[in-house]
Design goal:
- By secondary structure, the chain is of the alpha+beta class.
- The chain folds into three domains: 3-57, no CATH class; 66-210, NADH Oxidase; 245-410, NADH Oxidase (3-Layer(aba) Sandwich), CATH 3.40.109.10.
- 35% of the residues lie in helices and 23% in strands.
- It is built from ten helices and 18 strands.
- Strands 4, 5, 7, 8, 9, 10 and 11 form a seven-stranded mixed β-sheet that branches.
- Helix 5 crosses helix 9 and helix 7 (264-275) packs antiparallel against helix 9 (359-379).
Length: 419
């Protein structure tokens, strides 16, 4: 017999105790939320508290056994999902059937991905390479493990981390385009060595997904509800486009020498693609972005622009609302500007840098870098992307960028006009 509070109970009595506890728990939660509602019922904090109490008292169930689940039918229109719509709809999933609580995406407990569907996802995952070092995706059933060469040191290791991050993001975007679900499973502290020559950065679980945007797998909407979109100094981004994500990813390269010059609207769109706000929630917070972040922790990386003699920082959250702005952070000397122009044959630079000296921030920069190249291809603008060595970092450091890692070089025919 089980023991509750040191009293031996029958099965019916135990059931009464469980129901009574749930009743008291829900009553307490409702009273607490009600009291808080006198001040601000719709706050993310109160939603978080409520869902935590509810899930502790009545935990969500996991998926059925694979043998009991049907193979999911992925929507046919997934192949035509545009770059912009995939970026706007990207989110991770869980099994709690509640987009507003932890992960916005919802795994389908009754359906599964077939092995053929998983293999298709992996075939579609392709990144343009900057190095010839080993970065590998190792599949095992529904779980993908991402590996780099554990023998790499210093700069070569950081570059491999960036490319591995690009693979993380490519998997997420392919799943998003196809209407499949995915979720990260980290090893804590930025990964772990699994052998002398292989280091695992992270694992990703794949599974069937339910539509999480009002009955659809994709959204073309800006953030709304409790924290609505606030237009900033940049033009509002486009969240739907003409070029399919899957086809664009398949032909993506680290440079496009035949694209056109950029405009201020192009720069705005590129910055949104790198790290812009999207409509989904994460951990009850309206903090959706075009990229995932480690445990929802923001501010570990920076997106900056050097153009027209200025250094500016990209701002996607201000006054407790999602926004889309550039804030001038300093001046760039004419000598540094000339050095950059001569070296890259460009006059506008999107620089990706670390604010925190941890390897996992390199993954986040990989997410941003892949998004930037995809968006540039979708726009048809010319670009050149680089991972920076120590010599290449110097002019960006001199411009005021802390710990620069990667840059996308662009060209405009006239001043951008947003700095």
């Amino acid at each position: 017999m089980e023991c509750v509070d040191n009293l031996h109970l029958s099965n019916s009595a135990k059931g009464m105790v469980v129901h009574r506890r749930k009743f008291l728990g829900y009553t307490t939660a409702i009273l607490a939320i009600g009291a808080a509602g006198m001040f601000s019922f719709n706050t993310s904090l109160m939603r978080t508290i409520y869902y935590k109490i509810r899930n502790r008292l009545d935990p969500p169930s996991g998926p059925k056994q694979d043998s009991e689940r049907e193979v999911a039918l992925l929507p046919a229109e997934g192949v035509s999902t545009s770059v912009e719509t995939a970026l706007n709809s990207r989110c991770t999933s869980d099994y709690d059937d509640n987009p507003s609580y932890f992960h916005w995406g919802m795994f389908d407990k009754d359906k599964k991905l077939s092995q053929a569907q998983i293999e298709r996802i992996l075939r579609l995952v392709r990144i343009p390479r900057f190095t010839d070092k080993a970065v590998e995706i190792r599949p095992e059933k529904h779980t993908l493990t991402f590996l780099i060469d554990n023998r790499l040191q210093s700069l070569q290791r950081s570059w491999a981390m960036v490319e591995c991050g690009m693979q993380h993001q490519a998997v997420g975007l392919v799943c998003t385009a196809l209407g499949a679900g995915y979720a990260f499973n980290d090893f804590l502290n930025g990964g772990k060595a699994i052998s002398a020559d292989r280091f695992a950065t992270i694992q990703i679980k794949l599974d069937a997904a339910k539509p999480s945007y009002d009955g659809a797998h994709w959204s073309k909407a800006a953030p709304s509800k409790t924290k609505p979109w606030k237009s900033g100094t940049l033009s509002d981004p486009v969240r739907q486009g003409g070029k399919p994500l899957l086809a664009t990813l398949a032909g993506l390269k680290t440079r496009n020498d035949t694209g056109r010059h950029i405009t201020s609207a192009d720069l705005s769109q590129l910055l949104w693609a790198a790290k812009g706000r999207t409509p989904h929630y994460h951990i009850s917070q309206p903090w959706g972005m075009t990229i995932p972040t480690y445990h929802g922790q923001e501010g570990k990386s920076e997106v900056s622009v050097i153009s027209d003699g200025n250094l500016a920082k990209y701002i996607n959250w201000k006054n407790d609302q999602p926004t889309h702005s550039l804030g001038v952070a300093g001046k760039v000397t004419s000598e540094t500007a000339k050095l950059l122009a001569d070296q890259y044959k460009s006059n506008c630079f999107i620089v990706l840098s670390r604010n925190v000296s941890k390897d996992l921030v390199y993954w986040e920069i990989g997410y941003q870098l892949l998004n930037l190249m995809l968006q540039a291809e979708s726009l048809g603008v010319g670009y050149s992307a680089f991972l920076l060595d120590e010599k290449q970092k110097k002019p960006f450091l001199a411009s005021g960028v802390k710990d620069p890692v990667a840059v996308v070089a662009l060209s405009s025919q006239k001043p951008i006009g947003v700095l």
